[in-house]
Design goal:
Helix content: 40-55%
Largest sheet: 7 strands, mixed
Number of helices: 5
Order of helices and strands: HHEEEHEHHEEE
């Protein structure tokens, strides 16, 4: 175990060092682009002005992609920590295991020991529950981006169900952009914002209304929870309660 942990720390440290080195290179790149822009502005024909603009647009797109992908990777470790707890003698314990094979493994597998009390007040392991977690992260303001991630995550969980290795399923989606109204579409938000603000209609109500339209949701028979988060706080959650096609709001 210690060898794996030290290797993990080393990998992260190397990643930090490379990030700092690339950040320096990016600032040098920006400096060159600014110099080119300055020269172009004084050039009678405005030579290279179009290319400089394209370069700056490409850099912005690259940083957006980098931010989105890094959020997704970091979110997996965050959730592995959130789902791991070790009680005395492993009572009320759970161990989260990050997936090693993206094709075969869920993002995180959680092994739980479920205890029960028998004669003479002895605690024994009644069963072990194995939960498959699929984790998604979006930095986009477009609600369709989150909707696509929900559909993708549910399809993955439907496949996990088919392996018969799991007893529970969980999809958690991190919605990082405060402008993103998911699970509300723009049209639904315009219609329901007043009820939402007054507490008559919640994000969980809207998620329950919407989730049944994803084909994979209706194909899942194992206990399934779907959660939406922002800044690490859950803002919508539903469950099927282990009944195919059923939807119950949890918030």
């Amino acid at each position: 175990m210690q060898n794996h942990i030290e290797s993990a720390r080393g990998n992260l440290s190397n990643g930090d060092k490379y990030y700092r080195w690339v950040s320096t290179k990016m600032e040098e790149y920006i400096g060159e682009l600014k110099s080119a822009e300055e020269m172009s502005s004084h050039d009678q024909g405005g030579r290279m002005s179009h290319e400089v603009e394209q370069a700056s647009e490409g850099l912005e797109a690259w940083t957006k992609n980098y931010y989105n992908k890094s959020q997704a990777y970091l979110y997996e470790v965050q959730k592995a920590r959130d789902h791991t707890r070790v009680g005395k003698n492993f009572v009320d314990s759970a161990i989260a295991i990050l997936g090693a094979d993206t094709d075969k493994d869920p993002d995180v597998r959680v092994e739980k020991m479920v205890w029960t009390v028998v004669d003479d007040n002895k605690m024994v392991v009644a069963r072990r529950d194995t939960q498959a977690l699929e984790l998604k992260a979006s930095t986009s303001p477009a609600e369709s981006a989150v909707s696509s991630l929900v559909a993708e995550g549910l399809a993955q969980l439907e496949k996990r169900q088919g392996t018969k290795q799991y007893t529970q399923l969980l999809l958690t989606v991190h919605n990082a952009d405060v402008r993103n109204t998911y699970p509300f579409t723009e049209t639904r938000w315009a219609k329901k914002e007043k009820d939402f603000r007054s507490g008559k209609w919640s994000a969980s109500n809207e998620l329950a209304r919407r989730v049944v339209n994803y084909g994979s949701y209706n194909g899942i028979e194992l206990p399934l929870d779907v959660r939406l988060e922002h800044d690490g706080r859950k803002y919508a959650a539903i469950t099927n309660g282990g009944v195919k096609g059923q939807v119950t709001e949890l918030m």
